[in-house]
Amino acid sequence: MSLINKTLGSQPHVTVRVPREAARPLAMASPSVAVARSVQVSAQRLRSIDQWPVVMTSIEQLRGVVAVSPTVSGAAFAVRGDAKLPVVVIGIDPERFVAIIDVRTRMRAGRFEVAGDDVVIGSVLASDLGVVVGDKIRVVTTEGKSDTVTVSGIFTLGNRAADQTWMMTSLRHAQSLYDLPGGVSVIDLKVADVFDAERVASEVRDRTGLEAESWMVRNAELLSGLSAQNSSKWMIQFFVVLAVALGIASVLIVSVVQRSREIGILRAVGTSRRRVLLVFLIQGGVLGLVGSVVGSLLGAALAKIFEGLVREPSGAPKFPVVLELDLFVAATALAVGIGLLAAVIPARRASRLDPARAIQNG
Amino acid sequence: MGEPLLAVVGAVKEFGDRVKTRALDGVDLSLERGSFVALTGRSGSGKSTLLNLIGLLDRPSAGKVMVDGTDTSDLDDDALTLMRARTLGFIFQFHHLLPAFTALENVMLPEWGDRGFASQDLRDRSEALLRSVGLSDRLQYRTADLSGGQQQRVAIARALVRSPPLVLADEPTGNLDTASSKEVFRLMRRFNEEKRTTFLIVTHDPRIADECDRVVEIVDGRVASDRVRSGR
Fold first, then answer.
1. pLDDT, tens digit, for every residue of A179-233?
2. What is the distance between the alpha carbons of residues A152 and A102, in angstroms, rounded to a whole number?
3. Which residues of A touch B (CB under 8 A)?
4. If you measure CA to CA, which chain A residue comes closest to B57?
5. Is the pTM above the cut of 0.90?
6. What is the distance between the alpha carbons of residues B18 and A80, in angstroms, rounded to a whole number?
7. Do A80 and A172 share a domain, yes or no?
8. Which residues pair with A170 in a beta bridge?
9. Looking at domain B33-60+76-228, which of 3.40.50.300, 3.40.50.2300, 3.40.30.10, 3.10.180.10 is its CATH number?
10. Number of domains chain A contains
11. From the candidates B49, B54, B81, which should be mutated to test the interface with A, based on the most A CB atoms within 10 A?
12. How many angstroms separate the CA atoms of A268 and A265, rounded?
């Protein structure tokens, strides 16, 4: 889940944009006319979503949508001195955009300020251009328009591509750069349940006719990997549970066999079957409890050691380990439950021992 | 004469499903309160089988066992366990103490196992019994660290801790040297005389049998002789 959070920390859950332009052939084939045609794929240009405020209001009302942000997104070059680097200019409404991607809390320097000619840029881009807060950069769009902007803040989202290419400016400034007065090219969405994103995207497509892409489609490989990881996790857990249950059951069965004589004596001197049953059930539960406590301590210690061993270049753990009390409580409850269940058969066997034979043969 | 403490009426015990082996063949036996009885017979004669029936560890194939006026044939396993806990005491040849427990804990075991807890009164009674069998300095010893004679004395204390009216002793001296045998027998006799506890002692040893008030001999699953020693 932390990997998903990390991935979605720098991208919207659903992106809505205008459909790709496609050439419409004029000569059509019919039963009596055969047409040999060559249709060239249209070059794509930046276009605004038609009547985007209405579309946005409509999307906002969809079930599961928690935030909506209109943006203008286009390609450009950032020029400073001899450096000329490709960037993605993103024109945003700051308050709406932080509800989608919380840039404000991830500022490395300066402020999250995009009014006027102020821009915030990714930390890698800042480093590549050699700029700090307050420096000026020239922006040249792919349409050939150019402007000079001031770096008001530098952010790190943890996503290399975003940190290397993103340049955020005001919506109005981007509209001006890309000749989209009053228009927006993209509407970003955030949904309450990240795994509900594809359903929301599908509803947006149905309702608006626009192109809507969920993070699940954009990150299909990641999702497939996570799904495989999840299946593996469940399989491992199942076999661990099975191994624990068999382990406890076998320990108790051996214990019953080894202690047949003692059980026989207990039964002979007046210990009821119910009490013998209870003793072995409790033993199973205690084995589970002790095992879970020892296992939790060992597991927590090893996980923390592992977390310390593998780190990102920034020094942050590559595989952060979150140890929560709930996890230990659940693990302990599960282990005690398994211990009790595993003890049922040995306990029944112990309680049904014939005391006379157990004493004689034990 | 009042109602006997124990009455075995026409007890038959057979083992095996297809091929039946008859270990007891119509045994009648009754024990009066306060009696001190030896049960003798050769190996395989049916002594231990009879003792298991009387000890409510097994049920007869036919006939019945009545303890303190109650016909045990109709009792379920829980009721038998309860009766065993409160009416009977057991002394085994190999003492059958729990080696991981101390002498005191072993003595407390019958009531502990029945009630599920050990009261201070139980602890006091257990300590008093261990003192009376000469083990006041061995209360906290694990039974594995005691001699054979001492272990059997712990077993006697365990059998008597709930003051049962009937104690069943299966070869209680069979595994002991002469001195220890005499001491164990003397203790059983003392409790019989002081507390009027009834003892049924299975023994091969004619010297032990001769010291008892009554000797019942089993041969081939039947009572071959039942004699009361003169002067008793």
1. 889 999 999 999 998 888 999 999 999 999 899 999 888 888 887 888 888 889 8
2. 17
3. 261-262, 264-275, 354-356, 359-360
4. A356
5. no
6. 104
7. yes
8. A92
9. 3.40.50.300
10. 2
11. B81
12. 5
